[in-house]
Amino acid sequence: MLNRVTGLGLTGTAGDAELDEIDAFFRLHGVRYAVALSPFAPTEIGGRLQARGFEYGYAWAKFRRGVEDPEPVPTELRVEAVTDGVLFGAVVTAAYEMPATGAAWFASLPEREGWHCFVAFDGDEPAGAGALFVRGSVGWLGVAGTAPEHRRKGAQNAIMATRIRRGRELGVTTLTTETGELVEDRPSNSYRNILRTGFELRYVRPNLVSPDRPAATGPVDASPRPTSR
């Protein structure tokens, strides 16, 4: 989910040199990665990645809605905008069961331009979190999760409604978000919550996952170089 490539091919087809450069970077760090293919990218890129050993993995469903209020969902939790990035990061890492060190990745979000972060509280205890990123008239809802012990209390519906209202206050007219595609053997709570709050499915974006192979042990040239676009 975190080691990924986005935007590939949006300025033209990706040449072999560009694909080699991407692969060298991730091999240098010893991790597998995914390439998220936009529907606006050349369709041939998927086939070329498959020829390199990539396989289609868990895809992301992309949604869009306006800024009208969603149907209210009863909850005893309260949602507050936060500037405490440490608290926000701790909730997000707990929600995704990430290592505690990952909290620092999210802690700076409230300080960054365009970002608005929210935490749902059960009494004084943080239960869930979610962020809104705004650029112009478009807002993106993401970085959302609920701590395992607080699930099924309505945290995400409440945080979603709060972010929608905040987006409208900031002049947003279109909101987007995403979650994993609807698959029988995977959880679908997030998918249902998104539909419940008035989002409509726009498309499913595939993720091609790199082959599992040993990390590079010798020198690898991962420096940027000119590519044809």
Could you explain how this protein is built, in words?
This protein is α+β, with helices and mostly antiparallel strands. The chain has 2 domains: 81 residues, no CATH class; 140 residues, Aminopeptidase. The protein is built from 6 helices and 11 strands. The protein has a 7-stranded mixed beta sheet, sandwiched between helices. The chain has a 4-stranded mixed beta sheet with strand order 1-2-11-3, covered by helices on one side. The longest helix is centred in the last third of the chain and has 15 residues. It is globular and about 55 Å long.
The CATH topology label of the largest domain is: Aminopeptidase
CATH superfamily of the largest domain: Gcn5-related N-acetyltransferase (GNAT)
Taking strands numbered 1, 2, ... along the chain, how are they ordered across the largest sheet? 5-6-7-8-9-4-10
Main sheet summary = 7 strands, mixed
Helical content band:
25-40%
Instruction: Tally the beta strands.
Output: 11
SSE topology string: EHEHEEEHHEEEHEHEE
Gross morphology is: globular
- Radius of gyration (CA) equals 19 Å
Report the portion of residues in β strands: 25-35%
Label the CATH architecture of the largest domain.
3-Layer(aba) Sandwich
Give short descriptive properties of this protein.
229 residues, 2 domains, 4-stranded mixed sheet, Aminopeptidase, alpha+beta
Task: Produce a short descriptive summary.
The protein is an alpha+beta fold and 229 residues long.
Topology of helices and strands:
Layout: E1 4-5, H1 16-28, E2 34-36, H2 44-51, E3 55-56, E4 60-65, E5 78-82, H3 85-95, H4 103-107, E6 115-122, E7 125-135, E8 138-146, H5 155-169, E9 174-180, H6 189-196, E10 200-205, E11 207-209
Parallel strand pairs: 1-2, 8-9
Antiparallel strand pairs: 2-11, 3-11, 4-9, 4-10, 5-6, 6-7, 7-8
